[in-house]
Amino acid sequence: MKLVIVNTGVANLASVNFAFKRLGVEAVVSADPDIIRSASHVVLPGVGTASAAMRSLTELQLIDVLRELTQPVLGICLGMQMLTNSSSEQYSQQSSNHMGDAPLPCLGVIDTQVERLQNKDNLPLPHMGWNATEVTDHPLFKGFASEQPYFYYVHTYAAPAERHCIARCEYTQPFAAAIAQGNFMGVQFHPERSGDAGARVLQNFLEITC
Amino acid sequence: MLAKRIIPCLDVRDGLVVKGVQFRNHEIIGDIVPLAKRYAAEGADELVFYDITASSDERVVDKSWVARVAEVINIPFAVAGGIKSVDQAREILSMGADKISINTPALRDPDLINRMVDEFGQQCIVIGIDSFYNETSGHYEVHQFTGDEKRSGKTAWHTSDWVQEVISRGAGEIVLNCMNQDGVRQGYDVAQLKAIREQCSVPLIASGGAGALEHFVDVFHQANVDGALAASVFHKGIIDMDELKASLADNGIIIRR
């Protein structure tokens, strides 16, 4: 087992790193293409905006490196969103340089896209807190049987609960709590901050082999 | 359905959890790490650490306890108190805190909110607001420096205007501390929270006044807040987390069990 957490430079890595430590796994935090390629499992964390994260991956010349990985890859929150074809979160909320309506291209390894959650019933956004999640029998959710675990979410953008969706949640609309295509998996929630249920998802990820 | 959150708040001074009456006569409750772990294990949905060392002193404060907390707990937590700059925020977030909460520094320099949101994203910027009902003027007024009795006092802001201001600057969540209720354990200020809820487009957390199980039921039912923060009822063992969550569930409130 050689777990590598991709150091995107913008994400908060400490809590993800600590979560694996609690499972007894020492991760390597790196942005080095060779180290990432040689991993048995790769985690792509993410906090912040999609445009900042994609810019950082481009500068680090990691776009193709990540796309070509064949081992299990887990994207967390924004990391999950970066695995999709595109994100409509294309510009910083505070800046005025609106680039038009074209969505931001992402890694495109899971064939779906990320859009803003709709405003509905005056529900506050971001979607922040613990929400009941309907899981499937994907190996990432091994052991949850028929229960609907609560996971911790903080986000305003999401992928639809359609193509490649392996867990489903609802807030203002149904959305994908997790997606997967081949060796690439992503969770919209924060397993590192989702109590015992989240720890189980991380443990399941480590047990997946491709 | 999104669950309502129960958020114990721990006051921290020099890396220890303390308890004080009106910010005086602090008594040490214990080491921060085992207490944080205990609350997480008991079912708290989130924790807030309020660093009272930082709020009233100018000196550089040792924040290494943030990393020690992040290492052991598996629920989200926020750090409040004395965070005045983007660099200080970065340090705390890089040690593993999920959110930072700012109060007085945002009043002194509202643009700080924009800078932090641009740098770290909306989701980790919480604005704490100390709101006092002035019976003479009939208004809810925002106070600052409430951690320091020598400097504390009201600002020119009415609470509802400041709420709109911080939302327009990108705040991701608001903790509304109703000062009239604070520390007296007579219940949350449901009327004020309900009024703010109606105009607040981001998550709203109630703070100040929790003293009994029914206060939590009331604030969720009547003010529809997203979370309820409390300190002394948990520290003193007046309310048991399990019992609280059972009671909320019995009252039809969605809660994580």
Automatic annotation (TrEMBL), chain A:
Q: Among its keywords, does the record have Glycoprotein?
A: no
Q: Name one GO cellular component term.
A: cytoplasm
Q: Which Pfam families match?
A: GATase
Q: Where found?
A: Cytoplasm
Q: Name one GO biological process term.
A: L-histidine biosynthetic process
Provide any one GO MF term from the record: lyase activity
Q: Which NCBIfam families match?
A: IMP_synth_hisH (TIGR01855)
Query: Subunit arrangement?
Result: Heterodimer of HisH and HisF.
Report the protein name in the record.
Imidazole glycerol phosphate synthase subunit HisH
Q: What is the organism of origin for this protein?
A: Aliidiomarina soli
Q: What is the lineage of its organism?
A: Bacteria, Pseudomonadati, Pseudomonadota, Gammaproteobacteria, Alteromonadales
- Source gene? hisH
From TrEMBL, chain B:
Where along the chain is the active site annotated? Answer: D11, D130
Q: What does this protein do?
A: IGPS catalyzes the conversion of PRFAR and glutamine to IGP, AICAR and glutamate. The HisF subunit catalyzes the cyclization activity that produces IGP and AICAR from PRFAR using the ammonia provided by the HisH subunit.
Q: How does this protein assemble?
A: Heterodimer of HisH and HisF.
EC number(s) on file: 4.3.2.10
Q: In which pathway does it act?
A: Amino-acid biosynthesis; L-histidine biosynthesis; L-histidine from 5-phospho-alpha-D-ribose 1-diphosphate: step 5/9
Which keywords does this Swiss-Prot/TrEMBL entry list?
Answer: Amino-acid biosynthesis, Cytoplasm, Histidine biosynthesis, Lyase
BP term (GO), one:
L-histidine biosynthetic process
Subcellular location as annotated: Cytoplasm
Gene name, per UniProt, is hisF
Annotated GO MF terms:
imidazoleglycerol-phosphate synthase activity; lyase activity
Q: Which family does it belong to?
A: Belongs to the HisA/HisF family.
Species, as recorded = Aliidiomarina soli
Q: Name one GO cellular component term.
A: cytoplasm
Q: What is this protein called?
A: Imidazole glycerol phosphate synthase subunit HisF
Per its record, the protein catalyses:
5-[(5-phospho-1-deoxy-D-ribulos-1-ylimino)methylamino]-1-(5-phospho-beta-D-ribosyl)imidazole-4-carboxamide + L-glutamine = D-erythro-1-(imidazol-4-yl)glycerol 3-phosphate + 5-amino-1-(5-phospho-beta-D-ribosyl)imidazole-4-carboxamide + L-glutamate + H(+)
**What InterPro entries does this protein map onto?**
Aldolase_TIM, His_biosynth, HisF, IGPS_HisA/HisF, RibuloseP-bd_barrel
